[in-house]
Amino acid sequence: MTLRDKKSEALFQFAQYDAAAAEKSGYSNYSYWRSTLSVFLHNRAAVALLIVLALLLLFTFVQPYLPGQYDANVINNHPETGRQLSNLPPSLTTVKVTVPEGTLLFGAPYDEDWYYVTNVMDSIDRRQNMTITEYGEEFCHIEFEDISGWVLTEYLRLPEDPQNVPYEAMSNYKVDVYMEPVDVTNDGNSLYVSADSVRPVEGEEGMVETVGEADLRILPSIHAFWFGTNNIGQDLWSRVWSGTRTSLFIGFAVALTEALVGIFMGVIWGYVRKLDRLMTEIYNVLDNIPTTIVLILIAYILHPSVPTLIFAMCLTGWLGMSRFVRNQIVIIRDRDYNLASRCLGTGTFRIIFRNLLPYLVSVIMLRMALAIPGAIGNEVFLTYIGLGIPVSIPSLGNLVNEGRQLITSPSLRYQLIFPAIVLSVVTISFYIIGNAFADAADPKNHV
Fold first, then answer.
1. Interval 271-316: pLDDT, tens
2. Integer Cα distance of 69 and 287 in angstroms
3. Are strands 191-194 and 114-118 parallel, antiparallel or unpaired?
């Protein structure tokens, strides 16, 4: 070897060969699911709705275990009169009125923690003349026979100049006379105050005096009816979340059943050529029967219940999924890798699960996402026509059906508004999330 060759050899160095690195260089680092997730996360509206939907679903299961929750099916009665607490408007508190320190009230212990109190001294029948000694926009001080106290101004027939006292006035209705100018009643019933907010008045049996400002409540409880109550006194807040839980269970059960049956039938239909004609005829027969007729007949024949509703929806609901899967299988069943698998003697089910189904996962998930609001919509429809779940089982369909009957009463419309809002959020969220996932799963949108 010449000196020149030795110098050339010193200038160059052979690169080390790595078989794993060489193999890796022949493939792309592209991942379909990673790319799908990346595209989906760029859709902020869909991600936000997914978070809202997840929190709502979680809350429907957590809500019954939170403190101060009323049972969804329990009829709440007034503890003093036993009457149903019907159609109470929505409120964030049970406080009816707050009175200042030193307010005198008639009161007696309800239990260890509460007193029931009132300041009604007496009542005066309608169309009775009384003397107005002091006028106020809300209360007037009156004297009637041996009664001296305060009555609500709105119940009195007053002259054009009511400020010029004293004068005679007549009551339009039967009126309660209060010790002080504050209404300490709840539709004629006593209010409730915590025992540590009052003290007995010495020498006056049955009289108590407030210690500091005192909150007088419609019930001996600090737990309010946030969504109000329905016409028989059930807590609408608990019923809405219990109904959401029921409707979501129906939606998920129907979507899962339709997916399992639809995928199995669709794969067999599309891959096994000998069954194609038979299953096509079966599909044509079943698909020509209106889904609404099937739902009505099954719900009418069988005993109304959640399983009945799920069975009625699943009876023909799988047809759409099976047709869609069949069409996709027909497109890819004769591609080279499937032909190679058959030539190598690979079993039919292995080809189906290893070669065919992975290409359909994204679109199957999309159809399942869209099947859930569809099932909830069918449940609402069947309940609307009187063939849905029994009233004893809260569901969004039952709540919407009950609320729609009160739409003409402005003070009771809340019984439709709250379940309708939850129903809208659930259905719209599933539709938007499903479509966003479909766009994300399309390889054309991948970078």
1. 788 888 888 888 888 888 887 788 888 877 887 788 888 888 888 8
2. 46
3. antiparallel
